[in-house]
Amino acid sequence: MACFTAVPFEFSRVRPLMPTKSFLPGLILVFCAVPSLCSVAAERSAPAQSNSASTTLIETASRQYENGQLDQAAATLERALHIQPNNPATLHYLGVLRLQQGQYQQAETLAARSNIRVGRNVELRNRNFQLIQAAQQAQSSGTPPNAKEDLVAVQKGLEEEAQRRREAEMAVAEQSTPDTGNDAGNLARAEAYRGLDAPSAGRAGPEGKLQMTNVEPERAYAEVEIPRGHMPRPGKCRIWFPDRPAGHQPAPGKCKKLRHRVPPGAYLVRG
Fold first, then answer.
1. What domains are there in the chain, each with its CATH number?
2. How confident is the model at residue 68 (pLDDT cuts 50, 70, 90)?
């Protein structure tokens, strides 16, 4: 992507004795600033492209699974994990596919990895426990599980996951307010919401830099370690994924729009 900046010049007066000294520093500054602005724009667009690519892969895996292409769907989910290695939902659904493929040990491992990063999503945590139990039973008995009911559940789950991600991307795209970096330092006291339909009854802090200190229904207050320049401004919110680098987080936006579009495994951080 190329960036071009128009530089106005005035030639109404000609000064033969000093033709270039006065505007050369400004001209040099312009040519130095243009590449810098281009690189900043590219850096901001990279996370959005990465998130969109992962969502597209989830949608592709859903279609492949619907058509009975289990191997292709599993390969597609692996590609999605290369983009977002610690996404708990992707880990879970890939584990279900491994169970149906007869790879019971890998299914159990993927479910355990998902549970490490699942946070307060009780529904996904319970599904992971069921997946681990099914994998252990199939491995000990040598009998593959009945996958007819799982086919419908996984198909529905993949579609819902893709829909959640698309809604989150749309919410981010609607926000035009840039992140100005007005934060309270590296450790900020923030209000964090988890994208859940049901509240959690226990204390289960996610892996990483987010540690839950107090749990209330559908709401929690957390010590969020956010690098300088990434905290939303007062009155703004941003969706924060604990398994992503700070530079790959969605941009801040309006709390009213974002609070209903938080995907599983993510927080809504209020400035």
1. 49-174 (1.25.40.10), 187-270 (no CATH)
2. confident
